[in-house]
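Q: I'm writing a short methods note and want an example of a predicted protein-small molecule complex. Could you take the sequence and the SMILES for flavin-adenine dinucleotide and return the bound structure as tokens? Please keep the output block clean; save any remarks for afterwards.
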Amino acid sequence: MTAIAIIGAGFSGTLLALHLLRRTPPPVRVVLIERQNRFAQGPAYATGNASHLLNVPAGRMSAFHDRPGDFFEWLAKQPDAPLDLGPGSFAPRRQFGAYIRQLLHEELKRPGGAGRLELVRGDVAAIEAEPRGPLSLCIGTERRIEADLAVLAIGNFPPEPPTIADPAFYDTPLYRPDPWSGDALDGLDPDAPVLLIGTGLTMVDTVTSLEDAGHRGPIHALSRRGLTPLCHAGPAAPARRPGAAIPDRLVDCLRMLRVEARRAASGGSTWQAALDELRPFGRDLWQNLSPTDRTRFLRHLRPWWDVHRHRLAPDVSCRIDAARARGQLRIHAGRIEGITAEADRALLTYRPRGTDEKRCLSIARVVNCAGPACDFDRIPHPLVRRLLGDGMVRPDPHRLGLDVTPSGALKDRSGAISRQLFAVGPVTKGAFWEMTAVPDIRRQCELIAAQLAMLV
Ligand SMILES: Cc1cc2nc3c(=O)[nH]c(=O)nc-3n(C[C@H](O)[C@H](O)[C@H](O)COP(=O)(O)OP(=O)(O)OC[C@H]3O[C@@H](n4cnc5c(N)ncnc54)[C@H](O)[C@@H]3O)c2cc1C
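A: Understood, no commentary inside the block.
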């Protein structure tokens, strides 16, 4: 009997399992393996904080491309649904987690569902491959699961710490490396100054958590450019659909985007709508750029792309603006030179952007909010280390994830394409660039499920 194993039951792994069950005939089994106690959540949707809102409107968060209203309709049926709920509303992320969990539970209750879908709680530490045999997934030292095909859906990793002269600081309790762990703000004096490394979406989450916990002290957030995520526009007319083809040179793409954003704004729409119209072409656009242009984009434009593309729900944006206006949240642009621990304080030295001067801040807690780490050569994840060591996978050339083909097959150290090992979700960003948000991952899960169904 054919078995397909999925390693990781965040959004990507769970959704892939649901699509595989629909696309494959009954003898095929799907084994969904998760190392945490929680299935169908991952760090993004495990947050218990109701102020952590989705950054995509409910009307675009359905798990199924062909049922676009599915999440919004589910939300509307919840007993605590707000009266003004609409497809443009931004729901708490934990509700999206509950929606995905319910889809998984419904699948298990379907006639024959529990027999074909097996949930396994365990940390896959290695995958062993025999020539022409099934894959063997090692969970701890005792358990092995055999599978004909396996998919890595191992998701996002905590951020890397910035390089500093004496990294000993990172071993002190003043530093919290994982902004998504429940304890990043535990035991913090509400009047103490805090430093958040990074000024993107994770910084925003942490600021709302601090506010909700009644934090009164200063909150410093620092990144190289000090750019913060922009806000979604309210409902706007769609940007006028331009007929022009999308160019293959970065400089021409940028010019096109600027023209379309200006045209949208002057025609009663918004730059946000103009950018969103390019979304369905995101992966084609990325794959059509030359490797040099991709590198150029990552080096020079990425921070601007991120703040325009991954935007804030209006309510969250208002809270951040208010925290800045009252002087509690201070955004700094600069480079960290060093952080040292002195008794119960961290001493940060940084160089403000565009200057030679050095400034210092005394801080009670440093939380790394720099965004998920993606250079697999440096990620201390045991399975990743083992797969790289065994030469079964390799990082992609842009150090955004693992090297995969357009249909998600992993490439080994020599570039050969695996017929058994695949990947889905943020680990495939190198091939697709935009593989972070639900609408993109949903589309990818559908395509990979179709591809795997042809192999069983
Ligand atoms: C804080 C945050 C907020 C976000 N907000 C939004 C949003 O509002 N809207 C949106 O569209 N997108 C959002 N995203 C994007 C998000 O990345 C995707 O939507 C999605 O959650 C990624 O899912 P995933 O399953 O690939 O990864 P993850 O959610 O990271 O799940 C990976 C899972 O794999 C498990 N795992 C890892 N290694 C092993 C192993 N060896 N053995 C067994 N299990 C393993 C992990 O425990 C984890 O549960 C957000 C992301 C983050 C981090």
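A: Remarks, as requested: The chain has 14 helices and 16 strands. The mean pLDDT is 93.
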